[in-house]
Amino acid sequence: xxxxxQYKRAADLxxxxxxxxxxxxxxGLRCKAYDDGAGNLTIGYGHTKxxxxxxxxxxxxxxxxxxxxxxxxxxxxxxxKLRKIFTTWEDEGIRVLITQGMFDALxxxxxxxxxxxxxxxxxxxxxxxxxxxxxxxxxxxxTIKTYRVSMxxxxxxxxxxxxxxxxxx
Length: 169
Hints:
Layout: E1 8-9, H1 17-27, E2 30-35, E3 41-44, H2 63-91, E4 97-98, H3 100-113, H4 115-119, H5 122-128, H6 134-144, H7 154-166
Antiparallel strand pairs: 1-4, 2-3
Helix pairs in contact: 1-3, 2-3, 3-7, 5-6, 6-7
């Protein structure tokens, strides 16, 4: 039987400090636009939307402030989309409760690999499967380790997200 006090509706969760620290560390701060290795122009802490070659955040002066604003905006969009996955399931009569750690890990996956990719992932498919039990959560967690590990740094990053996801199980 699951310890239910730590399990909540995803709609009631928001990113914890772990998430913010994790994203900043994994993405790193870049004040000038760069190619992320997958052909996406990126700036700040992994921001890719409407970035053009030669872009510079805050003209170097307020780079961290502007990067934090972009990170907050992007993360809010991803969190809203993540919560929507779970509320859509609730509307279909499927109630899946998750922990803060699970929310943080899923949000990090969404931020890194896109909300659409996460929505179609094995992690989400397993979570949606009927019944809340520890084995389902462990099975979903295992798939995090291999989720979009196309680039060098992804393996270590996924390991941290996996650890965060299973914390408390």
